[in-house]
Amino acid sequence: MRTSRAPQASPASRTARRTRRTRRYGAAGAAVLSLALALTLGTQATAVPGPPDAAGGPASAAPDTGIRQYEVTGVRGAPERSALAATGTAIDEVLHGSVLISADAAEAERLRALGYELAPLPAAAAGSGDVQAAAPSDYHTYESMRAVVDAAVARHPDLVSSQVIGRSHEGRDIIAVKVSADVAVDEDEPEILFTHNQHAREHLTVEMALYTLEELTSGYGSDARITRLLDTREIWLIPSVNPDGKTYDTESGAFRSWRKNRQPNAGSSAIGTDLNRNWDYMWGCCGGSSGSASSATYRGAAPESGPETRVVADFVRSRVVGGEQQITAHIDFHTYGELILWPYGYTYADTAPGLTADDRDAFAAVGRAMAASNGYTPQQSSDLYITDGSIGDWMWAEEGIFSYTFEMYPRSASGGGFYPPGSVIDRETARNREAVLILLENADCMYRSIGKEAQYCS
Fold first, then answer.
1. Residues contacting residue 380 through CB under 8 Å, at least 6 positions apart
2. Fewer Cβ within 10 Å of end Cβ, the chain: N or C?
3. Greatest C-alpha distance within the chain
4. Is 187 within 8 Å of 229 (Cβ atoms)?
5. Whole-model pTM?
6. What range(s) does the Peptidase M14 domain occupy (predicted)?
7. 421: which DSSP letter?
8. Distance between CA atoms of 387 and 286, rounded to whole angstroms?
9. In 3-state terms, what secondary structure has residue 118?
10. Mean pLDDT, range 289-309, rounded to an integer
């Protein structure tokens, strides 16, 4: 049992610290697949079908916000997509030769004035009828999510604990759920973190957290693989990083297609910070976020200015014990696009300061193994377009954590976008079971996937 915590190591010592940690954990674990899948372009988010566009065609819209979805034509490669993203526009979906975006009328006109060609998305492409959630009641609310967690703690007190790690802007608890054999003991084992719901409208990710919790607890003692993992790992789940945004997106009884948190911005009537552009690594460096408070990708007034970002970052920093970060691997769940992404997002380069060729190869090998299990597309984050201030880049560069972003179902807007029907929740969360287990099994030595266990993890 650990009895003390040491302060966070300096940036200069992170590489050495990472090597020490992987050596300590590397004695056990199974080899992973390193199947290469063909890289294809995918999506990152979208909106919901709604009333006709002002030009007369159908478009995607949220009734309370006036947000519609448009296709922007003539945007082909990653540099052109990055240039569009640099205007402060949130790219929803990447197609061949175009992209989909969500925008209100003012944003659409601003982009047209910049020379972009926008066409309202046909309703059939945006998802309708039986491919779209009927109502927010298809998903757990923040309150019902808390009830599920509390019930799991009550049923499995030796396996599950829950703690409030901080509060949102509006005062809601942000909770971290720990799952491990002898859960009350802080053991010297690899720790794995799963975060969900940074973006408010991505409710399927909360369902993913609850699925994982149920699968781990129900499998302990009956499933040899899960039992072995819980005996040798400490697993953390943060089911909702953005509880205010989640609540706002659904509390009216209709989806609002809300992305950001609900924090006011000084000097502006615009609300909210994009939490996944608010992390303290390469914040605002590279055109991958917006400095405008009205933008969907507004990066905030400063790194970690979003209280929710700071809560999670402080929790991660608190897991530095004896000078070493105990969290070794991480997935941040988003919707949609069926992608598995790894750092860096701020640069197109495969390697960059703090990310060696071996690091990149280990990221890719485990990422491709996970993708082989769920059918997602594995690729470096910036293959889509440049982002900065993202959680994955921060986790790796600042804390030495192998961090992946999963973009869950659907693959395209035709599957329901942000709001697929409740009938697919069980199927699409279970679809990631094997990928989660692959990461858990490799968390003690990610370099095993490239045959370098002896070098890094002996």
1. 341, 342, 343, 344, 350
2. N
3. 66
4. no
5. 0.87
6. 138-443
7. -
8. 7
9. strand
10. 97
